Structures are given as C-alpha cells and as structure tokens.
Amino acid sequence: MKYLVVGLGNIGAEYAETRHNIGFKVLDELASSSNISFLSQRYGAVAELRHRGHTITLLKPSTYMNLSGKAVRYWLQQLHIEESNLLIVVDDIALPFGELRMRKKGSAGGHNGLKNISELLGNEDYCRLRFGIGGDFSRGGQIDYVLGEWSEEEKSKMAERLKVFTQAILCFIDMGADKAMTMFNNK
To answer: Does residue 41 have a pLDDT over 80?
Structure first.
C-alpha cells in the first residue's frame, strides 16, 4: 500500500527554524531516523520510505505554504495514491506548543496551506496531523509569530515532541487514522 505524507512549510533558509515550518521539521526527523534523504523533484523535496510492506512518500512542497495544493495534487496523481492515504503535517496556533491532534477530515481552520489543498483537491476529506505552536501573540501579531523562531523553552522540548509525531505518522500507516487518533491525540 502507498501513502503520501506531506509536511507544510516555506522554502528558504530564512524560514527554516520558524514555527510555520514545523511540517518540514517533522518530516526531516522521520527521514533522519529512517536513514533516508530528500531529493529535489517536481514541486518539492521528496523521500521514499519503506515501512512494514508500505511505501511512504514524504513530500516537502517547494510551492510555498499558500500554494501547497499544487504539489499535493501532483504527487497524489503521479503516484496513484488514494486521498484516504494522504496525511498533511501542519502547524496550528489554536493548540498549545507541542500538542498533537490528528483528524480524518475537517476545515482548514484558517490555515492557508490547508485551504489551498482543499481547493485543489475539491474536498476536505483528507487526514491532517496538527502540531500545536501556541498562540502567544498580541492582536495583529499572528504573521510575525508564525514566521518567528522557536523560543529557547520550545527548542528544549522539540526533540521529544518530534519523536512523538513521527511515531504518530507510523501508527497512521500501520493501523489507520482511527487507531492513531486514539493513541496519540492530546499525547
């Protein structure tokens, strides 16, 4: 069975350590722990992971966050992967730092990357894995906050949180979304 796991973020060194790029960071952790590397391909950096009889394509779109749907749609079609085997890893300001929430479908929740994916797929029926980045910003400061770098306290907890998120991804692959949600939501 084939899966597409997409980490959302923005390309470029100036965004590498920002909160908005947590999708890239989670996929980098999964690739590193699996001894695989990303290669630059059409619409993004791609790595292929084999896990317990499954083929998992990891994608970090090069289309910028707000145009992520173009890369997602292309790779789903290119690899002939069902949308039910799609998982999007994304930041979420509505969740406290490091909190995990997986859902099988739902709204974009104000996230422009998810909005674009939903527009181009024509539905919101795909699984998403949200990484809480907190919402500790003043009115009007959302853009600076999500494009800001992690605090020292957040950095000190990052390795443990990344490990949990990679475990949740592999659980999604091995046992499906329902089991992964039961085991990992709010963990």
So the answer is: yes
